[in-house]
Model the fold of this input.
Amino acid sequence: MPMRSRISAVIALAVATLAAGTVLTAPSAGAAPKTTTPTFLSASQLPPHPTSSWTAGPITEGFPEALGLCVSTEGVLSYDYRHRTFHTDLDTSAAQLTVVTGTTTQAKALAKHYDDLIRTCADRIEAATPDVEAQGRDYGKLAVEEGARVRGLHTETSWGASDIALLSVGRDGRTVTVVQWGQMGDFTDAPVTAFKKTTATAVKKLY
Done:
């Protein structure tokens, strides 16, 4: 079964539980107009694939479905979401989300909220889906702009499907970005060093 199909199956089983989490206050109707337009990663700035080049999709309004396994819009629906997805010719995919908030305080809270969702994602997957074993890893903080953090997530189903993902959250001013990379495999297949470089680049491009 292709990785996207397997992940979709896990999402279908777990979505109700994974939507739970700390609810943040969305910007009020009188918030200042959002004028920031962050620049997104290009295909060449993703972790290199050993046998296939990356293809970048268009920059699109809205929240990317690809992040729905761990990160959701619960409680923050009024923010300005934009995203870009990427893929190789094989089963490796990636996504970047940017969120422009009204203030740096809101952005700081949102970045923490997303990181908390990623940090607790493995436990929530296992609680919601008995047929899936999940494990998370913390790969630490990055000293870039207002900071970023990189984490890993491995899932294995009872029928033998094994997938690895790297996720990061970073912030610059009142803008937050989430980057995700994923493919079939386990933690030994994760390009952590290259993904940290990708994350740092993503955060630097927010303004």
Summary: Helices lie at 3-18, 104-119, 121-128, 192-204. Residues 3-18 form the longest helix (16 residues). The CA atoms of residues 38 and 206 lie 4 Å apart.
